[in-house]
Specification:
The chain is of the alpha/beta class and 254 residues long. The chain is built from five helices and nine strands; from the N terminus they run E-E-E-E-H-E-E-H-E-H-E-H-E-H. It has a single domain, classed as Nucleoside phosphorylase domain (Rossmann fold). The chain has a five-stranded mixed barrel with strand order 5-8-7-6-9.
């Protein structure tokens, strides 16, 4: 039996998308998660929703307790994680409003707790396929059915934040092969892997970072405005794809 955890914000924690919603408070060995969990069902599948940056977006990227967030969802029985995230585009063809389904990441963070195994036990977790291939396939197929412009198989680079990149950094990240940039995917995805959870990210392009000479440099206001305008896409995608996860022949080795 599966249970889907949703990590995000911008309307995703709206209990109206759930059947029989209820709020669940959680504590973990790593502290409190970013928000209480909103639990219920979508299409007959049990779901738990968590606001990564807190309700009201009050927690900056570096202070997000990623370990508590993933632990709380796992303790609630979640087997699959659908994560929503805003990203800046580092490629001309990924325009604001497009969806991106990353298959790889580059970690450019510096100050985060990146593993559950920081005691006496040393565990080396494979990261050749950090994002669940099965979930990525389902999400891309559903996005196509809904008519959403999307880009599968891309690379996301996660920076520490909360500041945005300089123009020199933006061009450097492009040279490294990154396609989109954000402040939240790492270590969320790596921690999910350590807990053997199926994890996939749905990234919404909100801007062109600052590398694009013909576009205005990114601002927080720009990111939030585009997210609010297009958050319905992610909600529609998740509501449509979650019932398909339960029926899918999931052979992902996690």
């Amino acid at each position: 039996m599966i249970k889907v955890g949703i990590i995000g914000g911008s309307g995703l924690d709206n209990p109206d998308i759930l059947k029989a919603p209820r709020e669940v408070s959680a504590t973990t060995p790593y502290g409190d998660p970013s928000s209480p969990l909103t639990c219920g069902a979508i299409g007959g599948v049990e779901v738990a929703i968590l606001a990564r940056h807190g309700r009201g977006h009050t927690i900056p990227p570096t202070r997000v307790n990623f370990r508590a967030n993933l632990w709380a969802l796992r303790e609630q029985g979640c087997t699959h994680i659908l994560a929503a995230t805003a990203v800046g585009s580092l490629r001309q063809e990924i325009a604001p409003g497009h969806l991106v389904f990353p298959s790889q990441f580059i970690d450019h963070t510096r100050r985060r707790e990146t593993t559950f195994f920081d005691g006496d036990t040393v565990v080396h977790t494979s990261m050749s396929e950090p994002f669940c291939p099965e979930l990525r396939t389902l999400l891309a197929a559903q996005a196509a059915e809904l008519g959403f412009v999307h880009h599968p198989g891309k690379t996301v680079i996660t920076i520490e934040g909360p500041r945005f990149s300089t123009r020199a950094e933006s061009h450097m990240f492009r040279g490294w092969g990154a396609d989109v940039i954000n402040m939240s995917t790492v270590p969320e995805v790596t921690l999910a892997r350590e807990l053997k959870l199926h994890y996939a990210a749905t990234a919404m392009s909100t801007d062109y970072d600052c590398w694009h000479d013909e576009e205005a440099p990114v601002t927080f206001e720009m990111v939030m405005a585009t997210m609010k305008k297009n958050a319905d896409k992610v909600i529609r995608l998740f509501v449509a794809v979650i019932p398909r996860i339960e029926a899918y022949d999931d052979v992902c080795a996690r």
